[in-house]
Amino acid sequence: EVQLLESGGGLVQPGGSLRLSCVASGFAFSNYALSWVRQAPGKGLDWVSAITISGTTTYYADSVKGRFTISRDNSQNTLYLQMNSLRAEDTAIYYCAKPGPYFDSWGQGTLVTVSS
Amino acid sequence: EIVMTQSPATLSVSPGERATLSCRASQSVSSNLAWYQQKPGQAPRLLMYGASTRATGIPARFSGSGSGTDFTLTISSLQSEDFAVYYCQQYNNWPRTFGQGTKVEIK
User: What is the pLDDT of residue B9?
Assistant: First the structure.
């Protein structure tokens, strides 16, 4: 069974940083690209970033480009999202998702709240 | 960026009735379209990919159609567990983009 477990969310002040992690199990982690998708409270789904199998190619939504960095450690079956210069509009549940290339598996998400 | 537009925003349907949800892309996405269902407090669940292929475990009352820019998700006979928010998503181009969602509520 595919499992994706996110962690690292919390309350952070505007301009601050957080690093999210997603530990995967139940599938061959190093054989799949992965993504982060977020959902602001009461709003729809918003794709954030993706990374290829080797980690050499990354993609970002315009809204986070230059502030967020996606990475992966295939030896640890872990996906990361480094979030810098956080803004109030980054407040959301952040989901780790396994694309195939559609998102066939999702974690339960980790809540990031950006507020002073 | 490809903009995905769903309609209607809210659909009120009685149990046992048919529901038809629409999704339109601002440019062609071929058949690279997925549908997701999301219930309150839960992560989204993949329903359909390739515009018309049901994901594993999805009941046959769900069907998808369309290609290019216009797509439809049909639920043939709504069950109580189908009342939820539905999102379409294109995976033809970067960035990946979602529609704003259609809420299917009990009439």
Answer: 97
**Probe site for chain B from A102, A104, A105, A108 (most B CB atoms < 10 A):** A102
A103 by Cβ neighbours in 10 Å (0-12 / 13-18 / 19+) ranks as: buried
What is the rounded CA–CA span in Å between residue A87 and residue B98?
A: 22
Token readout for B68 is 């290019």
- CA angle at residue B52 from B51 to B53, to 5 degrees? 110
Predicted local distance difference test score (pLDDT) of residue A100:
67
Asked if B96 reaches chain A (Cβ–Cβ under 8 Å), the answer is: yes
Contact A102 B91 (CB under 8 A): yes
Tell me the average pLDDT across A84-98. Answer: 97
A26 torsion bin: left (phi>0), alpha (psi -120 to 50), beta (else): left
The answer to whether A60 contacts B95, with C-beta atoms less than 8 Å apart, is yes
